[in-house]
Amino acid sequence: MFLGLCAVLALALVPLTGGSYRRLSELRLRWLPLAAAALLVQVVVISVWPTMPHGAAVAGHVLSYLMLAVVVWVNRAVPGMVVIGLGAALNAVAITANDGTLPASRWALQHAGIHARDGFNNSGLLAHPHLSWLGDVMVTPSWLPFRNMLSVGDLVLLLGVVILVIGSSRRAGTASDLPRVREAAGAVA
User: Fold this and answer.
1) 65 — phi, psi (to 5°)?
2) Is 33 within a domain?
3) What is the pLDDT of residues 114-153, one digit of tens each?
C-alpha cells in the first residue's frame, strides 16, 4: 500500500517538476517478464505456500532478489534504477544474513499490528538477528490504511521509484534507446 501511495505521489509530481506523462509512457524497461517472475516467486513463498519446506522458501526468496538484480542491471541506465537496486540490495543483504528472513523489531511489529504466523515469514522477530538496523524497524504512518513495516532498503527503493518516475518523465531516452543512439552517432561521425 505504501509503495502504491508513493508511486501515485510521484505521478502527481510529474507535471509539477516539468515532466511529461507522454515521455513517461515511452519508458521501456527491459526484461520485465523476469521481474514479474521474481515477484510471483515472492508471492508464492510468502503468501500462497508459506508452509513449504524452510530451505525451499529461503532459496526462493533469495532467488527472487537475484532475479530482480538482473532486471536492475540491464536497466541501469534508466533514471533511479541504480537507487532501486541499492534499496533491494540492502534488503537482500539483511535477508541473506538472516537465513531468508528480514529481521523486524518488536516495536515495528507491535505498531504495525502484525502477528507471527506459521510457516515462512519474509520479515519477523528473530532471536539473534544480524544487521538488524537494515530490517523492518519503521512503520508507515497511522493515518494510512493497511499499516506496514519499512526497512532502510524499502525507503531507498521508494526514493529510486520516485527518481525513476520523475526522471523518466523529463528525458527522452531510456536504456532501450542506447543502441539506436550509438548507431546514430556512428553514422554522423
Assistant:
1) -70, -35
2) yes
3) 887 777 888 889 999 999 999 999 999 888 888 889 999 9
Reading the block at residue 39, the C-alpha cell is 515477484
187 lies in some domain: no
DSSP the chain: -HHHHHHHHHHHHHHHTT--HHHHHT---S-HHHHHHHHHHHHIIIII-TTS-HHHHHHHHHHHHHHHHHHHHHTTTSTTHHHHHHHHHHHHHHHHHTTT-EEB-HHHHHHHT----SS--SEE--SS-SSGGGSEEEE--TTSSS--EEEHHHHHHHHHHHHHHHHHHH-S--GGGHHHHHHHHHHH-
Predicted TM-score (pTM) of the model is 0.84
Residue 155: domain span: 2-171
Please state the domain count of the chain. 1
